[in-house]
From TrEMBL:
This is Lipase. The keyword tRNA processing does not apply. It comes from Aedes aegypti. Keywords: Hydrolase, Lipid degradation, Lipid metabolism. One of its GO terms (biological process) is lipid catabolic process. It comes from the Eukaryota. The lineage of its organism: Eukaryota, Metazoa, Ecdysozoa, Arthropoda, Hexapoda. SUPFAM superfamilies: alpha/beta-Hydrolases. The keyword Hydrolase applies. GO terms for molecular function: hydrolase activity, acting on ester bonds.
Length: 366
């Protein structure tokens, strides 16, 4: 009980904070923990008789990821890796009738559906139990640094290609930006990047007030509420650090590494504050697709992201006035408006690469 002056008002405030956090956390992270995603992905593939191969990919830090290779009915013009957002799996791309993988297949692209270590479709860890704290010690940083890198390498090796296109949504976009800035050698393995509702800079997010309130009251919250918001491994199959990292981005207004506190930051980074991701190291063409009604990743923050990417990459901004954050994988407007734009960009860039390759081969044969 709070015993200082104004006890009644402070108690009411605390109750309001708890109610707000519980409500928003329920919207943000709660889900049913079962194997429906696994069956949905494979059932969809079976239902539509898509020529598919399933692979288990091991990351450098021991996580076992499941990826699907979907092959078109014509010789593939190129390969595309699609990465899901937080609390999702490869099944999240299959919700709509005219979904993105299907549109890419129809355009003659080979499609790889990725699953991060947090996905219910992934196959655990070589050493750690799924119930252990060690297993869940990650944020989008590790998903980008390890998971995306491993899936890209596997896709290129299996398809015998030198490059692929990358599509990523929300947290997947955070991971993609992390990979290409922290391991810039992967830029050479990417033809183009299309990011949907990219979660990077989040200073204008609707969750800013909740992040501030939680940061202020977290040490006096009941454990049950704390678990709902951040220690949600069993409730929603999220890492605590996944959610905390986004809370930090919202409060700092920066796109930067995980903040462990001044002492541990000095040990890990050599500075009291975590370093920003160096987006100047991204050299591939980037298209940013964002919703005019997105209150999670606000349009202002996406526009700011575009100014932080190198101009020479030819970064493009495409706004969809009526879309909110979750609409990119759930509303028919995404299938009719967003996905054709993504496919058109990828097909065009694939043709450019093919034309350059043919021209080089012609010069070499002279």
């Amino acid at each position: 009980m709070i015993r200082s002056g104004g006890t009644s008002n402070q108690t009411v405030l605390l109750l309001l904070v708890l109610a707000t956090i519980t409500f928003v956390a329920g919207r943000a992270v709660r889900r049913t923990v079962d194997n429906s995603d696994r069956s949905r992905t494979e059932d969809y593939i079976t239902q539509y008789e898509i020529n598919t191969e399933r692979y288990r990919v091991t990351t450098d830090d021991g996580y076992q990821l499941i990826v699907y290779r979907l092959l078109p009915q014509v010789p593939a013009q190129g390969a595309v890796l699609i990465q899901h957002g937080i609390r999702q799996s490869s099944a999240g791309w299959l919700n709509l009738e005219k979904n993105l993988p299907m549109q890419l297949l129809e355009a003659g692209m080979e499609v790889w559906l990725g699953n991060s270590r947090a996905s219910p479709e992934s196959a655990g860890h070589l050493t750690f139990s799924n119930d252990s704290s060690q297993f869940w010690d990650f944020s989008f940083h590790e998903i980008g640094f390890y998971d995306l890198a491993a899936m890209i390498d596997a896709a290129l090796e299996i398809s015998q290609r030198k490059q692929l296109h990358l599509i990523a949504y929300s947290e997947g976009a955070s991971a993609a930006l992390t990979l290409l800035s922290e391991r810039p050698e992967y830029n050479a393995k990417i033809t183009s990047v299309n990011l949907l509702a990219p979660a990077a800079f989040m200073a204008n997010s609707q969750f800013k007030l909740v992040a501030l309130l939680f940061n202020k009251f977290r040490f006096i919250l009941p454990m049950s509420v704390d678990q709902i918001l951040i220690n949600s491994n069993q409730l929603s199959k999220n890492s605590r650090k996944q959610l905390e990292h986004y809370q930090q981005l919202i409060l700092s207004g920066q796109f930067r590494r995980f903040d462990h506190g001044p002492r541990r930051n000095m040990e890990r980074y050599g500075s009291r504050d975590p370093p920003n991701y160096d987006l100047s190291k991204i050299t591939r063409p980037v298209v940013l697709h964002y919703g005019g009604r997105d209150s999670t990743v606000h349009p202002k923050d996406v526009e700011h992201l575009s100014t932080q990417l190198p101009k020479e990459t030819g970064v493009q901004l495409i706004e969809y006035d009526l879309l909110d954050h979750g609409d990119f994988t759930s509303r028919t407007e995404a299938a009719s408006n967003v996905y054709p734009m993504v496919v058109e960009d990828i097909v065009a860039k694939s043709k450019q690469i093919e034309e350059v390759t043919v021209a080089k081969e012609a010069l070499m044969s002279e």
